[in-house]
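REQUEST FORM: STRUCTURE PREDICTION
Request ID: SP-0412
Submitted by: Lab K.M.
Chain count: 1
Length (residues): 128
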Amino acid sequence: MANINEPSDIIPAATDVVHHAVESAEQAAHDAAGKLGKLKDDVKSQADKAIHAARDAATTAYDKAAAKARELADAAPEKAREVKEQAQKIAEEGTAKVRATVQEQPLAALGAGIALGFVVGWLISRRD
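STATUS: Completed
RESULT:
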């Protein structure tokens, strides 16, 4: 800062102070602009990384789900065949039990059939 000995030195001294303040402000503004630019680039870079990671995670999850769906679709015909065979086996066993019961106790089976017919007939007649 300049030495002020006379009143006429005040204006040049004030001018120097203002000029120095303006230069300091310009430098601070330039530094801040640089820091903001770097911050903007850093934020953009982080956002790009997050988007890429999310995209990768979504792709991985989709691929796993698609593979599982294909696996289930491939296994469906075999599972359906197993269920059909199991149902046929149960039906055959039931038929064999009914035949055995009818052969061992024909009168009881005939009575049960007649009773079932009356019950079904009675239920149907009540609906009308």
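NOTES: The two ends are 114 Å apart (CA to CA).
Reviewed by: T.R.
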